[in-house]
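Quick one, T. Sequence first:
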Amino acid sequence: MIDSISLISGHSMPLLGLGTWQLRGQACKKAIQMAYELGYRHFDTAWLYQNQQEIGEILRDMYVDRSDIFLTSKIWRDSLTASSVKGQFQLCLDHLQMDYVDLLLIHWPSSEVPLAETLNAFMELHQQGRVKSIGVSNFDIDLIEEARAIAPISVNQVKCHIGDHSPDLQAYCQRHQVAITAYCPLAKQSILSHPTVLSVAELQRRTTAQVALRWLVQKKIIAIPKASSQNHLKDNLDVFDWQLDDAQMDLLDSVS
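Structure tokens:
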């Protein structure tokens, strides 16, 4: 069973999802199907990933109940004017064959379009019921502060893993009920050979990937590792029925 976190929007978001960056075509469909059958209910995509059509097709082919899944998409930085947001978002829905997404993010900040224009367009989509929760990605504290003054920001998706986790940003988001989603939660595998992670994994009798993911979800940080093999999908899911102790958490916090 995957634990969830309550968002400021009132919706619930699973603490573990499947990241789909660089998953395309039949490989993407196969990964989504395997993940769903194993118990994943949270899928993270974006306009930039060019895989929303495949995701929509496989979810339709599996006759998945829409209310059973949490779907995140993102608007790319070249489409942040009000009209471009609405146009790109409609294409996202068309590709996904959905009436709404659970979470819509500004994929990357842009200095070329006022943040208020973009977020007011997001708010319109929210008021229409086509976006359940609003969020941002790759925003620092100053930008989140600005965003929060305009719209209810539920999530900030950032690169976050053992050895690179921005404690000040974490503290700010926690204080203001902005959930953090960690992309690259395994640091593209590089953190998995770190001696500290290896030693904790040995003590826990877990894989280093499981330790890295457990460290995040134990902090109530949402993790979206990419995986395309059944073994990795299954292993990544197995992080909710055990705990790292306080000393192990502190040790992993200190990795740099």
